[in-house]
Design goal:
The complex is a heterodimer of chains A (163) and B (459). Chain A is built from two helices and seven strands, in the order ββαββββαβ. Chain A has 163 residues and is of the alpha/beta class. Chain B has two domains: 106 residues, no CATH class; 306 residues, Cytochrome-c3 Hydrogenase, chain B. In chain B, the strands form three sheets. Chain B has a three-stranded antiparallel sheet. The chains are: A alpha/beta (163), B mainly alpha (459).
Chain lengths: 163, 459
């Protein structure tokens, strides 16, 4: 998969923390991470999702990358290079599917399940994509921005209390 | 023999995409089936190949003697937890047993999930530390620290030196209290109730100092964006020195109580072993990774705060077993004491928080005499402060491993997305590898050696 086509050309930016951020397309995503793995990034430190529903015009995206509602953010760590790299891939709302990284980094198992559980983003190739934090029969994906925050109504002194 | 166990080089982990795909189809139709399908090769595949990548040495070698293809009626699936006294909270484990030997296992979590990441999006950056501090309740100050570092990276503010060193002092004391607590619970899991009493006793010393400094024993909200909440109390050097002297002397008592004790050694040496390749593949960090011989400590390798100005050793193990993890934590207490002693010597003077009117409320004394100061104070604590747009990932070495914070700001006073990379959550994935081929009686000790804090796992 990697090597035959040579290095994959993706747009790069720099995050607020100075980390190199790569912005692959969904098609390049898996191959790019595989390339990073071959380049010495031994471990996947973190994988999380972001829902940009109410903040669509975010800055920091390079030219040519169309902002979508969801983003999957992967933080790779190289122990030998003592370096981090971040991969941000755009995931559209109408087809929230990206490739699973579980064949490259088995440690993304629980992280991808968490993103699926809380954002509803599917990872094709994940062998056990089930809810991990929420109950099995839960409806909806709580970390989506259109998922309401539960509230207890404020009880004022005048309101009839439970007496 | 099972052909999947034959070593075929590193490519075999993607050897049968068709089978992987079939399993995925099944999963897609049932969103929540938390099932450990009895004896199904697909489920084993997850633990044996997918979940451990190109292993081949550790886990497979150990389980080579176990016939994983035995008929279903010869194995038994038992459920352990969530209300089990030794699962460190509400961890549930499904174990497939062949007699007393654990074949497959699957941790089931979520019993403590309260949506703290979602809550974090509703709280301002000023309030945020009160939220994250409750995640890993055994090292609350580290949680506050990583959140504050992430916020400060977005704000682009430089902290006064004293604030940095106070943070380092508190973080190291927290590491001591967390590891001592781990020694206590691990001792209890192995039947050493005296170790439990001693561990809690030592932890209480550190917590007493925390109470004196921060006002609370736990969930301090002490390390905040912009510095710390208050300066150290008068005479803190003496308090800290007493803590260091006492606990250091007592670590040698633990040596006598546990390290050389035949029963303890029998029950921990060679139990729950993991190889370095497996630990890396499973993203394990902290004492689990270091127990396999990988010298990786963010304090040394990617220094934050002022860790590059203190001298300490990174403790590593060799065999990746429970005893190595015990020895690492015990010695890390000593290393932390070493760091704390250097901090006492080198603590610089100056301010304990940044004097930036944007993020820092005015001093208490000025509020009484100045209306503007009162308004300013009110604004900081109700509206908070605006944080420039951007995204940042910061990571620190918590007692359990890499504690990361991915923070996205949309330019308002509340985080747009607050994600905590919880070391316990990720480390728990290595549990099926650690447990495989071991005895069910050792499972309790092995769970303990992962040191999961369920508040952090479920967030």
């Amino acid at each position: 998969m990697v090597g035959a086509e040579g290095p994959i050309a993706v747009a790069h930016t720099t995050g607020s923390d100075g980390t190199d951020v790569a912005h692959p397309t969904r098609e390049q995503y898996h191959a790019l991470v595989a390339q990073y793995r071959a380049d010495g990034f031994e471990t996947c430190a973190d994988l999380c999702g972001v829902d940009y529903l109410t903040h669509p015009g975010r800055s920091g995206l390079p030219e040519g990358i169309k902002p979508e509602r969801f983003e999957v953010v992967v933080n790779l760590l190289s122990l030998q290079l003592r370096r981090r790299v971040r991969v941000r891939v755009q995931v559209p709302e109408d087809d929230p599917v990206v490739d699973s990284l579980i064949d490259l980094y088995p440690g993304t198992d629980a992280m991808e399940r968490e993103v699926f559980d809380l954002f509803g983003i599917r990872f094709s190739g994940h062998p056990d994509l089930t809810r991990i934090l929420m109950p099995e029969d839960w409806e909806g994906h709580p970390l989506r921005k259109d998922y309401g925050v539960g509230r207890v109504p404020v009880q004022f002194k005048e309101a009839p209390g439970p007496r | 023999m099972n052909e999947r166990r034959e070593p075929q080089g590193p490519t075999r982990l993607v050897a049968s995409p068709a089978r992987l795909h079939r399993v995925a189809d099944v999963a897609e139709t049932s969103e929540g089936a938390q099932e450990l399908a009895p004896g199904s090769p697909e489920a084993f595949l997850r633990v044996g190949e997918a979940a451990v990548g190109e292993l081949g040495t550790g886990a497979v070698g150990r389980t080579g003697q176990i016939d994983l293809e035995r008929p279903d009626d010869e194995t038994m699936i038992i459920n352990m937890g969530p209300q089990h006294p030794s699962t460190h909270g509400v961890l549930r484990l499904m174990l497939e047993l062949d007699g007393e030997v654990v074949l497959r296992s699957k941790p089931v979590i979520g019993y403590l999930h309260t949506g703290m990441e979602k809550t974090g999006e509703e709280l301002t950056y000023v309030q945020g530390a009160t939220n994250v501090t409750r995640m890993d309740y055994l090292s609350p100050l580290n949680n506050e620290l990583v959140f504050s570092l992430a916020t400060e990276a977005l704000l682009g503010i430089e902290l006064p030196e004293r604030a940095t060193w106070i943070r380092m002092l508190m973080s190291e004391l927290n590491r001591i209290s967390s590891h001592v607590m781990w020694l206590a619970t691990n001792g209890m899991d192995l039947g050493s109730t005296s170790m439990m009493i001693y561990g809690f006793r030592e932890r209480e010393m550190v917590l007493a100092f925390f109470e004196k400094t921060t006002g609370l024993r736990m969930n301090h909200n002490y390390i905040r964006p912009g510095g710390v909440a208050a300066d150290l109390p008068d005479g803190w050097e003496d308090d800290v020195t007493v803590i260091c002297d006492t606990i250091e002397a007592r670590t040698y008592e633990y040596d006598e109580l546990l390290t050389g004790q035949p029963i303890f050694r029998e029950r921990t040496i060679g139990v729950g072993a993991i190889s370095a390749a497996d630990a890396l593949a499973l993203s394990a960090t902290g004492p689990i990774l270091r127990s396999t011989g990988v010298a990786w400590d963010l304090r040394r390798d990617m220094p934050y705060l002022a860790y590059d100005q203190v001298d300490f050793d990174v403790i590593i193990g060799t065999y990746g077993d429970n005893f190595d993890r015990y020895a690492i934590r015990l010695n890390e207490i000593r290393e932390s004491i070493k760091i704390v002693r250097q901090i006492v010597e080198k603590m610089p003077g100056g301010d304990y928080r940044v004097q930036d009117p944007k993020v820092t409320p005015p001093p208490r004394a000025r509020i009484d005499e100045s209306m503007e100061a009162l308004i300013h104070h009110f604004k900081v604590f109700t509206e908070g402060f605006r944080v420039p747009e951007g995204e940042v990932y910061t990571a620190i070495e918590s007692p359990r491993g890499e504690l990361g914070c991915y923070l996205v700001s949309d330019g308002t006073s509340k985080p747009y997305r607050l994600h905590i990379r919880a070391p316990s959550f990720v480390n728990l994935q290595s549990l099926p590898v650690l447990l495989r081929g071991g005895l069910v009686a050792d499972a309790v000790a092995t769970i303990s050696s992962v040191d999961p804090v369920m508040g952090e796992v479920d967030r």
